[in-house]
Amino acid sequence: VSDLFWPGDERAGGLMSDVALLRAMVAMEDAWLASLVAAGVAPATARRPVQDLVRADDVDTLSRRAEADGNPVTGLVALLRERLGEGDAARWLHRGLTSQDVLDTALVLSLREVLDRLLDDLRAQVRSLRALAEQHRAAAMVGRTLTQHAVPITFGLKAASWLSGIVEAAEGLRLVRVRLAAQVGGAAGTLAAAAELARLQGLADPPAVAVALRASTAGALGLEARTSWHTTRSPVTAVGDALVTCTDAWGHLASDVATLSRPEIGELAEGRGGGSSTMPHKQNPVLSVLVRRAALTTPQLAASLHLASAGTVDERPDGAWHAEWATLRDLARRAVVAGSQTTDLVAGLRVDTERMRATLDAAVGLYAEQGSMAGVAGGEPSGPYLGATDLTITAVLTRARTFLEETA
Amino acid sequence: VSDLFWPGDERAGGLMSDVALLRAMVAMEDAWLASLVAAGVAPATARRPVQDLVRADDVDTLSRRAEADGNPVTGLVALLRERLGEGDAARWLHRGLTSQDVLDTALVLSLREVLDRLLDDLRAQVRSLRALAEQHRAAAMVGRTLTQHAVPITFGLKAASWLSGIVEAAEGLRLVRVRLAAQVGGAAGTLAAAAELARLQGLADPPAVAVALRASTAGALGLEARTSWHTTRSPVTAVGDALVTCTDAWGHLASDVATLSRPEIGELAEGRGGGSSTMPHKQNPVLSVLVRRAALTTPQLAASLHLASAGTVDERPDGAWHAEWATLRDLARRAVVAGSQTTDLVAGLRVDTERMRATLDAAVGLYAEQGSMAGVAGGEPSGPYLGATDLTITAVLTRARTFLEETA
Amino acid sequence: VSDLFWPGDERAGGLMSDVALLRAMVAMEDAWLASLVAAGVAPATARRPVQDLVRADDVDTLSRRAEADGNPVTGLVALLRERLGEGDAARWLHRGLTSQDVLDTALVLSLREVLDRLLDDLRAQVRSLRALAEQHRAAAMVGRTLTQHAVPITFGLKAASWLSGIVEAAEGLRLVRVRLAAQVGGAAGTLAAAAELARLQGLADPPAVAVALRASTAGALGLEARTSWHTTRSPVTAVGDALVTCTDAWGHLASDVATLSRPEIGELAEGRGGGSSTMPHKQNPVLSVLVRRAALTTPQLAASLHLASAGTVDERPDGAWHAEWATLRDLARRAVVAGSQTTDLVAGLRVDTERMRATLDAAVGLYAEQGSMAGVAGGEPSGPYLGATDLTITAVLTRARTFLEETA
Amino acid sequence: VSDLFWPGDERAGGLMSDVALLRAMVAMEDAWLASLVAAGVAPATARRPVQDLVRADDVDTLSRRAEADGNPVTGLVALLRERLGEGDAARWLHRGLTSQDVLDTALVLSLREVLDRLLDDLRAQVRSLRALAEQHRAAAMVGRTLTQHAVPITFGLKAASWLSGIVEAAEGLRLVRVRLAAQVGGAAGTLAAAAELARLQGLADPPAVAVALRASTAGALGLEARTSWHTTRSPVTAVGDALVTCTDAWGHLASDVATLSRPEIGELAEGRGGGSSTMPHKQNPVLSVLVRRAALTTPQLAASLHLASAGTVDERPDGAWHAEWATLRDLARRAVVAGSQTTDLVAGLRVDTERMRATLDAAVGLYAEQGSMAGVAGGEPSGPYLGATDLTITAVLTRARTFLEETA
């Protein structure tokens, strides 16, 4: 896995890679086959673990075949059956499922790894930012609004504000994490094939058996069971929105760092700036730049998921569904890369509190508002004019601690 | 309010209109002034209700002035002070707030009306769709995937599937509805001016007083109090995402109706189709068409909110914030119009179960899968091949009833 | 026309307003009726000017009616016929057209006014930027890359770079301006009704008559005639793309101004900054902020036009077309407002060349690259290290002059 | 190259791949080094071809290193110098360039291959559609508007309409193809290093030498020379817009095919439909579905390019530029895949003119408009009511022939 077009992509490792998707698809087939056997729908002889039947280099073959079928599942089922050889396992494999069941569930399984990785990064960021907010709780600096000097703040408050956005994004992520659901609907969401198999085997209440198969498969995969969402795609858009809410929070932080590390401001610096191919003195805020890049492109990917959701039609859609896969992959990987870069960025952030202080002391009009207040209420302006800065930092730190405890 | 460019816009009435925003801004100024007085920060003589001081036709003046200030609040404060005349109310008005506090809170108040209106419509849709799903629970029709005939479903299942998407969207909307928060941060989010005023009045613990002012103002407006979110904009993007999740669900439903009302299919028809300027025989599925229009344009508006969120910088941003206002307005109004149209659409939907039955009976290969299952498990295909259709409908109806009860 | 949600909106005046659209629709009906009569398809008695039959306050009625028909044309035709009273004009009005013909052409006519207004602004900007580039041709300043100091440039070069982007955008606009075409296709793009009328009147070669009617109508309106583009929407997306290319160029310029007017940098300032509701000392770069706002939201509007274009189906589409109208309106008005604001911004821009010089002199490592070159080629670094700055400025100025001459 | 997430991706082969980008970057370094020597800026001993110094598997190393530098160029230069060993070539390589020069030019070179490939496909489509329009010029079918039957058309007209959109898109592509320009600006767009080297070598008029180096490098690469466009990105957005205009045209065509191949309509069928994993009878319109997928996602990618363009700041931007690379890659590859699929789609399209005829004969009210015209003009309705269908087809075919001749 390498990507010259998206420096840092290797941070995402194999997450949402072809191989990860392949393994997740096979995991779904395996769980379903096991459920069929456990429920007595398929005979015990049909139980063969299938997860070891594929190799990483199968993705190439499957990928090439996928176009003819419109998705990679049909080819995978053929491949697995071929490798299972003759017998009950090959005969029962995939029976009752449709390709969308397998691919949707595999995407969900792959996304779960992404979400777990992101939550790790978010937790690390929360820890770093708590430390920064604590350490610089009282480090006064200029507050800026619409690019201009406004009133004083402390760097602790700025760190707490970043932290607040990150905790908020993380909580959104947790919410979608716990609601991840398997897709088990069959050809048109009715579970007709599964129920038919149950009937043919003489089981009582075939529809209930089919629903139970969904539940046991989902359970085996650690996912929620829910009625088929082939054409109601809010489970997909919810993940997309949560991911973008993360890149928003990181983009905001990175924009602040990029701004405050301008030489004329110089209040922040990345721990290790990137070099220039021609100017050795330069220390570019490379992580910030790369995080900003992600934040600029991911909202449009999430919009594509919504457009796909809105464009579904019939019992399974004619293009809208297909638009989701790579969009989710790109969105997820970019979020992982940006998340990991942000973790490094905040961990290594260098804070020049003296420069902050100097700028504050030299700023013009920074206490004009304070003076106006004296004009309103009478009396004399006094003190550092930091208002509830400290209380706010404490409130955010408390929320952050709760988050860390709840996700420990 | 009229809009030749967006037929049906009048359904949104005054929601998120200039006048609504003006009144909401004044409501915020009023609540804040009352809190200042109640807390003893401002003298009792400063308490003057300001809500009646503006008229609808002030929006014109304020709008013209807004560009010079970059937002409409500065002009509004000047106008209110002028109308209050000399005295304590004019002197104390707005003290401690910044323009973003007023505008953000006003937008939240305006959005609350939008969300309430949408929840009404969603509840109406849920009721109509429950009735449709019940009534047509067993009305068999062709299930279609990738535009082609697949296996049988019932129209009740299709209605339940729409219903499921709509309940999901409605629950997302409720979630953002209860979390709507006031914005009270002062110039740079520190509440410095408010605390300074408290100090000048000799109150104990001025920062705590400032925080209490935020709480009492938020409480008076029926909003949550939270630390300043001037630059952490997930409260805004969460509303946008929830609105788009609604238009997604409606767009999906409308696409289905538009497709199934094609003359060659003829299984559904809008209660009252739109005419043609030149072809009197035509019955266009106008509501579906207009709902689809909304679903096609709103995801990009929500993406703009995310881009604005990611692009915030400093203590208050230099353009990103300004991009939110009209985007939220357009997104909210389009959602309201589409929601109202969808309510009419589902209420008036005509279902031709005979045509459904006829198409089903004529369909080729619809039971091929059923035959395959017999090939796998042995035995003979039998029955209508509807699997867990009935159980699924029941599950969705149960969820819908719970939703209606919880929101009653 | 006022808009609290989009400060500065009044700069767009009546462009792309409901009234402008109404008048443009009537202009189309008028031109078509005149063509019918001139070609002998309709009798001379059918020739009645219709442009004065509508009033501004008709938009309200038409707007309310538009939803039932799915567009405002059907209602307009009914209104015009009613006002024409009995007789040939009422009978012949609109015959041969479909509502999309009228609305598409009206949008094109409205957009033409927008493009002309934008070209005026672009010309004004080109003049201002030429003057800035000339005046500050040699005013050395720090060149910045990835936020850090790189090598010297002059402010003249920066102005020339902005100018280059603006000329490029303007040339794109001219290109779409000259290609604006009328829409005349009839119900399904065949001109069947027009040809039928010609046949019924006994004219020779009715299809050729119909095509000639299209040509004469387009000619009367000053538009290109082309085969019906009901479902091939690149004429629409081309306008959208050209508009966004303008807001891109302005957004870039405004971002530079916002950055360089930060107090720590202070090299540029808007002629007249906006105030703060609470901090009288602040001079916010309001125009830059408002222009940036437009640049952040317009790309998504242009994307909506492309999505609509890609989503067309049949002979006239079921929602995709309807999504274009308000999108075009919003995109066009925002471009006009941003264009006008940019004109003011560059006209009033204050350039602090002393501050530029001082920053340059204090910058660290700015000539490191120059030293490296001496290391490569031998010899000693010397001179201001401005390379082809002057030649580049001259090249851009030449191109700008050509543009001004060609559009004079 | 395989992609399970985007079936059909292998159609794009190595276009815009990591290896293609690597080779294009090296081509740029090579052309520049040759120009330096040819101009007498570098000594003849510095001329060493560098194109064979890299291997496909270098992309992995370069990709991993790219993050630290923020782009892959710095690592590439180091690698090439290492492989050149000691000597003049290593010393002179890349002197005068900045990383953005190399990467921008490499992207342009890679895009040129994409555009050429697309133009081949567009030409093939034009040929197929011409044949379809000719063959079915008179094959009457129902014209549909807003999903409903309107008036008759012929399938030749529909094919001509698709053709018209495709020729239009192709002409836009040609326009950007001929304007592709090299990027040669040096660290901040001034060509200072190149001019400095010329000065150190004692050449006359060093700035002019630097500009001439740009021209000769561009010429050697077959690209236009233009003043540096580091921060004026319309050359990038123009490519994006042209690509999306293609996917729009294909998406429209594919939507029509998907609709008309519904079993209830059955007028069109893909030459070879895709199978189902569980329903052997199904013939899914797979190519249409996959093309629609592209059309649904590419507009947002083009919007990202515009956002990047609008977000540039300074002499080289802090994230906006970096957002372009993968966006361009994805947009370009998806366009190539969709283009190739559309070529197959139109080449293999099966047209059921009998079914068209039958639907037309059974349609209700299809001649109602014709009757109305008789009511207006007097006389009797007569004939097939196809208006200028034939003339329109001829006009489009003529334009298509011109296009083919001009691009032969």
Q: Care to describe what's here?
A:
- 4 copies of one chain form a homotetramer.
- By secondary structure, chain A is mainly alpha-helical.
- Helix content of chain A is 62%, strand content 4%.
- Chain A has helices spanning 18-38, 58-69, 73-84, 88-92, 99-135, 155-178, 192-200, 206-221, 234-260, 286-310, 320-348, 353-362, 368-377, 389-406; strands at 140-145, 148-154, 268-269, 350-351.
- A two-stranded antiparallel sheet of chain A has the order 1-2. Chain A has a two-stranded antiparallel ribbon with strand order 3-4.
- The first copy, chain A, has 14 helices and 4 strands.
- The longest helix of chain A has 37 residues, at 99-135.
- Chain A starts with 17 loop residues before the first helix and ends with a helix.
- The mean pLDDT of chain A is 96.
- Chain A is elongated.
- Chains in contact: A-B, A-C, A-D, B-C, B-D, C-D.
- Chains C and D meet through strand 1, strand 2, helix 6, helix 7 and helix 8 of C and strand 1, strand 2, helix 6, helix 7 and helix 8 of D.
